[in-house]
Write a structure and sequence with these properties.
With 508 residues, the protein is α+β, with helices and mostly antiparallel strands. It has 3 domains: 151 residues, no CATH class; 161 residues, no CATH class; 138 residues, no CATH class. It has 10 helices and 19 strands. Helix 2 packs across helix 3 and helix 8 packs antiparallel against helix 10. The longest helix has 20 residues. It is globular and about 70 Å long.
């Protein structure tokens, strides 16, 4: 019996030693922060960028056979790790043939997205642009499509509002294109008839509220960011609604970090907004005083970004508005040359007949990504940075942002880089995904630049990368390679082989 106990004790000790050897070599770190798996895990380093998919269960909301309600239809979705789920879900919903209990979302009319970038995601708002075939739907049927999209796209909780456009124009809810749809929200409790009756109710003198998406200038002239919230409109005509939107922009964002305050847009108007419906299009005309240019400079907002803010806000909410015309003093804005945008800086935008359309400013729409940098106490701090919305789920783009180090337009300032200075995009040889793990393959320059880091800096390097990448949808772990292999360490403290889980104990 004593021999059995002794053998069991020896086996237990060996097991403890084995488990201890599977963790990081860091000294003094709390047990909860040790996130390395067994070292016998083997993966193949990516030699270039490979976009891989992951499978996840999802619900598609389709109309019941009698059209009275939306039914949740389970589906297995193949999501791309490099783009937001909303794009895939919208494509699946529009293409679904129906079931024995539910019909296709648009009945006999085939719907498709309008272009490859027809689903824009910024913050908790998705904007879906449908192709021209959606014009064949009645307004009630189009409303049902919008609600189906909202229920489907908002199911995971990261999205809360959905706008539906047709070829970049807000169709509204009536034939005259005077009744806004507003931003749809998830509603699985009420039937379609109840929702439609409330949304399409005739206008009255009473104040009416809509969920509206507002596009605010981002700092440093980088572009625009959006948030949606309820607004009360005192009048139901489109010019007065435009004034309410201008007031909301001037009042400032409620949830967006670090955006500059817009000037008093309503106060600088020299006359009420008007609608020009000549030439087969509907344009909103806004006239501002000469001092608008100086007011924008005082607020740190470039003219091009302010125009993007106005165009996106007005065309997203106001029905039937193809674009806007802006006059500043005696000048009609017919061209703009952006200076701070991520793409197109220095290129001149020309607007025929002075009408600025939504598509003219597609490069201006941004989304926030989460990045981790070092603070003065030797920990990691999460910051939010506005980047092109379609890059917020691009692993290479996120690593590039880390390489740039902290910027003055981040949500927090006073931080330090986690990646060694001198690392360039060309040093990231490949990025790929394997199940829920993102794999990074760096050149030998990473090892050379990191060789002299102390233990704390090496931890921040590794977990700055890992924590940033694990903010992406579908990513739970990360693995780092140097020239196709996982060396034992970069600077002598962190054991590199295997996969890394995020380390939340390093965050403050």
């Amino acid at each position: 019996m004593k021999k059995r106990i002794a053998r069991f004790a020896a086996l237990l000790c060996a097991l403890c030693l084995l488990l201890g050897g599977c963790q990081s070599r860091e000294e003094g770190a709390p047990a909860a922060s040790l996130t390395l798996p067994p070292v016998n895990l083997r993966r193949t380093a990516p030699e270039n960028d490979v976009n891989q998919n992951y499978t996840q269960s999802a619900l598609l909301y389709l109309p019941s056979l009698d059209g009275s309600q939306l039914i949740a239809v389970p589906a297995q979705a193949e999501f791309s790790a490099a783009r937001h789920r909303a794009q895939t879900l919208a494509e699946m919903l529009l293409a679904h043939p129906g079931t024995e209990y539910a019909r296709p979302v648009a009945g006999e009319i085939t719907l498709a997205l309008s272009g490859t970038e027809a689903v824009e995601v910024s913050g908790n708002v998705a904007t879906v642009s449908l192709g021209a075939s959606a014009l064949r739907l009645s307004h009630e049927a189009l409303f049902a499509v919008g609600q189906a999209l909202a229920n489907t796209l908002c199911q995971f909780g990261d999205l809360q509002y959905v706008n539906v456009l047709i070829a970049g124009v807000q169709p509204g809810l009536n034939v005259a294109a005077t009744l806004p749809a507003g931003s749809y929200q998830n509603n699985t409790r009420e039937d379609l008839a109840t929702l439609w009756a409330r949304s399409s109710a005739p206008s009255s003198e009473a104040r009416r509220s809509f969920a509206a998406t507002l596009y605010y200038p981002a700092s440093a002239g980088k572009g625009v960011l959006c948030e949606a919230r309820m607004l009360s409109f005192a009048a139901q005509d489109l010019p007065n609604m435009a004034v309410t939107l201008l007031e909301a922009l001037s009042a400032g964002a409620e949830s967006l970090p670090g955006v500059p305050r817009c000037p008093d847009l309503k106060g600088m108007m020299t006359s009420d907004p008007t609608l020009d419906e000549t030439g087969g299009t509907r344009r909103l005309v806004l006239k501002f005083s000469d001092n608008m240019n100086d007011a924008l400079i005082d607020c740190g907002i470039t003219r091009s970004v302010m125009m993007a803010s106005l165009v996106y806000t007005m065309t997203t909410f106001l029905p039937g508005v193809d674009g806007i015309e802006v006059r500043i003093g005696a000048e009609t804005v017919t061209s703009l040359t952006p200076s701070g945008t991520y793409f197109g800086a220095g290129d001149t935008l020309l607007f025929q007949d002075g009408m600025m359309r939504r598509r003219d400013f597609s490069a201006f729409l941004l989304g926030h990504c989460a990045l981790y940098f070092a603070n003065a106490r030797g920990k990691l701090t999460r910051v939010y940075r506005a980047i092109p919305f379609y890059e917020t789920h691009n692993a290479r783009a996120l690593v590039q942002q880390l390489m740039m180090g902290p910027q003055a337009y981040d949500s927090q300032i006073g931080l330090s880089p986690v990646l060694p200075q001198g690392l360039r995009d060309a040093d990231l040889l490949g990025v790929s995904f394997q199940n829920n793990t993102v794999l990074l393959n760096f050149s030998g320059q990473m090892e050379t630049l990191a060789r002299d880091l102390d233990a704390a800096a090496e931890r921040r390097l590794v977990y700055g990368l890992v924590n940033t990448l694990c903010e992406m949808q579908g990513v739970q772990k990360a693995a780092v390679f140097i020239q196709g292999v996982q060396p034992d360490t970069l600077a002598g403290e962190v054991f590199l082989p295997g996969d890394f889980l995020p380390n939340y104990n390093l965050i403050e």
